[in-house]
Amino acid sequence: MISLLFTFKLLILxxxxxxxxxxxxxxxxxxxxxxARLVLDYAQHNxxxxxxxxxxxxxxxxxxxxxxxxxxxEGVKAVFDYLEQHKHVEWLDSSKTRCHIYWRxxxxxxxxxxxxxxxxxxxxxxxTLYEITQGDDTVQESFHGLEKEVLLKALRSLEAHKxxxxxxxxxxxxxxxxxx
Length: 180
Hints:
The protein is of the alpha+beta class. It is 48% helix and 14% strand. It has two domains: 2-101, "Winged helix" DNA-binding domain. Chain C. Domain 1 (Arc Repressor Mutant, subunit A), CATH 1.10.10.570; 106-178, Winged helix-like DNA-binding domain superfamily/Winged helix DNA-binding domain (Arc Repressor Mutant, subunit A, Orthogonal Bundle).
């Protein structure tokens, strides 16, 4: 059902989207906000955590083949600049071709993981990163399948708030201990 709902939303938004950047500043801001929301919804629906911008620019997200319309490279850049300004994108290279896309920011992921740990009685108990993102106990959790780099950012935000301690990072047995 969610797939059908998302597909419908994508069709409506892309069909009604302005595929050329609007010259009026207020209109452009609303346009970029709508495109940014669409990109975030698309990433969430497809559980995308890392994007290659040039690959993404050729998908149905920015390219409506039925209408024979696509957002220009300048438009795609403007959307990603907007996402960066609103802290939904973190570039992985200086040429801005690959990025982490944060439909949930690392601190939000951290809160969800921490709530799961508390709810499952895992305070002061070491957990491997694999258990958190791939384990049988997290299959129903939204962070199941979360990319390791994003998980580490989430756990570092917990560590900064004294809610976790990272263990053996960059080893075969990477983990975390959640604190009260």
